[in-house]
Design goal:
heterodimer, A: alpha/beta, Rossmann fold, Beta-Lactamase, five-stranded parallel β-sheet, 13 helices, elongated, B: alpha/beta, two-stranded antiparallel ribbon
């Protein structure tokens, strides 16, 4: 006997003879299948429209619609369903015709029960194999995408096909466990813009919490725990499945049927479970890949900094001696009383310019210097406030509003307060430049703790950064400022300082729509 | 107005860059310190001067073609336990470098490029002590 708890395939028995219907219904139920019966073709089509069946056992000769006509109609409404034909007066022609129309096989009345049961089992095996193949095909596709940006829309699209859903959305859990819709797809809407209601997300949030899938087919008789939740009434049939990998929840996927009257069944849930595990793994892979890429970028960036730093130090160092000569002799000349005023002015210019060179070289050397490991516990909020105070006058005269979005105290980080202040000063200076031509110029500084890290976000609504500049923004000597206005070292020095604090620094920006610099520093335990 | 019993104090300047050596020589003249200036352009020459003279002050560069100024400083200190030492260098970590020479008791670090005034006050202070 089959394990009825494990498999609940739905079988539809169609025959105008009550005796056959009842016998098959009883026997197939005993075998563990979920059986429905129909007395004629019209009745059968109605049932197939309302619910998903894996298999139909259909009489050939019936009133209203013939078996062949029913078979045709099935091909339109549910091409995946297998059909076994029963015939009382089998002619070879009708049998061949039925097979041509896609029937799985046929039995001749009177048939032995064993013969039919064996056929049913075989047909369902084929059905299962087809589903498995579809999931496997889909998995192959999703494992080919390695970034979440391409993976998630693909998953949403494939979900429609694999589960016969009318819309599907994938929500990903952020660091604090809140779900956010990252991709969705819909049969009716060509663009993936299915609006997810707050209620949808709330139910998904419950699923995330319980870590078990939820099937809702009748909103009025849902799980006790969901009672009274807004938005339930709008649901027709939904599978909400958690995406779990290595016992960690990465997100939730929902499959919806909103229009068709076919509710999801236990087979659908099985497919959803297999598919969900594949999706979770693919998302996990994409996350790993992203982290790998980030690390690699950081590595390349720090190597770039190191090699350019060495070169710079070498050159700067070599310049110190000749510059000392220029400065020293210019200063000696200035002491000569016989100089005309004009000569004195000229020599003074030589001296002043050499002092300027000295400062540039000092900056270059500072950049390349191997700083010592930072050691003290630094209250970042204090440093932030001090830096904001430093800019108070400059910002208010430029009409820039600073929005402070951080608590009065945050956990300290291990580091060097003056170096961190240098980073903040740099970011505030850059923001000021970016905000030069903006209406209602605003710099919003947000700081918060997350996963053992202190996250600082400096968001301005200024000119933003062009895409081609984004990738080079932390490169030494890269500057968008006019020649002579910036050394192009500011941000790379910041990057170096943040790295030395075992933190990371990155930027997000759309040209014309402001920029956000994000500094992440490990919390000092 | 040299004191009659006083023969001029001897000062060693070590610098491999010709222009820098000329500049330092000029700065000594300008300051009218009344010292007897000895110059060297490498470690070997410097050690030779230390060996054969009674010195009152050492002014040395840190990086030299045949070695580091540290070697000169150590030899100088060994022979003249109290005489002042002025170190010149273009390196930003000069102070740290000098700090690393424990016990050498370097009086002043002059970061290159230094101004005429910086040099003058460093030498004045050193010769007074």
């Amino acid at each position: 006997m089959r394990n009825s708890a494990k498999k609940k395939e739905r079988v539809l028995v169609i025959d105008d003879e009550p005796g056959i219907r009842e016998m098959l219904s009883r026997e197939l139920t005993l075998e563990g299948y979920e059986v429905q019966t129909a007395t004629d073709g019209v009745d059968a089509l109605e049932q197939v429209r309302k619910g998903k069946f894996q298999l139909a056992v259909c009489d050939l000769n019936m009133p209203k619609l013939t078996g062949l006509e029913v078979l045709d109609a099935f091909r339109d409404s549910d091409p995946d369903m297998e059909v076994i034909m029963m015939t009382g007066y089998a002619t070879v022609e009708t049998a061949v015709q039925a097979m041509k129309k896609g029937a799985y096989d046929f039995v001749q009345k009177p048939f032995s029960l064993d013969e039919l049961l064996m056929l049913v089992e075989k047909a369902l095996e084929k059905q299962n194999l087809k589903l498995t193949m579809a999931v496997y095909e889909a998995s192959r596709l999703i494992f080919r995408s390695i970034t979440l940006e391409t993976l998630l829309p693909l998953v949403a699209q494939l979900s429609l096909k694999i589960l016969g859903a009318e819309d599907a959305s994938i929500m990903i859990a952020d660091d604090s466990g809140r779900l956010q819709v990252k991709a969705s797809a819909s049969q009716s809407q060509p663009v993936a813009s299915v609006p997810s209601t707050v209620a949808d997300i709330e139910i998904a949030q419950k699923v995330a919490e319980w870590r078990e899938p939820l099937v809702i087919t009748n909103p009025t008789s849902v799980d006790e725990r969901l009672k009274g939740m807004a938005g339930l009434a709008a649901i027709k049939s939904t599978i909400i499945h958690p995406l779990i990998v290595d016992e960690k929840l990465v997100g939730v996927i929902t499959f919806n049927r909103t229009i068709s009257e076919k509710p999801f069944g236990s087979m659908d849930l099985r497919v959803a479970t297999i598919f969900a595990s594949q999706i979770a793994q693919a998302i996990h892979n994409a996350n790993l890949y992203r982290r790998l890429e980030e690390k690699q970028t950081q590595l390349v960036q720090s190597e770039k900094l190191a090699s350019i730093g060495m070169l710079t130090a070498g050159i700067a160092h070599e310049l110190n001696n000749p510059l000392n000569g220029i400065m020293g002799f210019a200063q000696l000349l200035l002491e000569d009383v016989s100089l005309s005023n004009r000569q004195r002015e000229d020599i003074k210019t030589i001296n002043d310019e050499s002092v300027r060179c000295r400062n540039i070289i000092k900056n270059l050397l500072q950049f390349s210097r191997n700083k010592q490991q930072p050691v003290e516990a630094v209250q970042v909020v204090t440093v932030l406030n001090a830096t904001i105070d430093l800019f108070r006058y400059e910002y208010s005269s430029a009409g820039i509003t600073v929005e402070k979005d951080f608590a009065a105290t945050l956990p300290p980080v291990l580091g060097d307060a003056s170096q961190l202040q240098q980073v903040f000063i740099n970011l505030m200076t850059n923001a000021q430049h970016a905000l030069g031509a903006t209406a209602k110029p605003t710099l919003r500084i947000k700081a918060f703790e997350q996963n053992g890290k202190l996250i600082l976000r400096f968001t301005d609504n200024g000119v933003g950064i062009e895409k081609k500049a984004l990738g080079r923004i932390f490169d030494p000597f890269f500057t968008t400022k006019p020649v002579g206005k910036g050394t192009g070292l500011g941000l790379s020095i910041c990057y170096g300082i943040v790295s030395q604090h075992r933190g990371t620094m990155r930027v997000e920006s759309d040209a014309g729509r402001g920029a956000t610099f994000i500094v992440e520093l490990p919390k000092h335990e | 107005m040299n004191e009659p019993q006083d023969i001029a104090r001897k000062v060693l300047v070590v610098e491999d860059e010709k222009v820098m050596l000329i500049l330092v020589t000029r700065l000594f003249k300008r300051g009218e310190f009344g010292v007897d200036l000895r110059t060297a352009t490498c470690v070997r020459e410097a050690l030779d001067v230390i060996e054969n003279n009674d010195l009152a002050l050492l002014v040395t560069d840190m990086s030299l073609p045949d070695g580091r100024g540290v070697e000169i400083i150590h030899r100088f200190r060994a022979k003249f336990p109290t005489a002042p030492i002025i170190v010149m260098s273009g390196s930003l970590t000069l102070q740290a470098e000098v700090d690393a020479i424990s016990g050498a008791n370097v009086s002043t670090c002059l970061q290159k490029p230094f101004s005429v005034d910086d040099f003058h006050s460093a030498v004045s202070k050193a010769l007074k002590s």
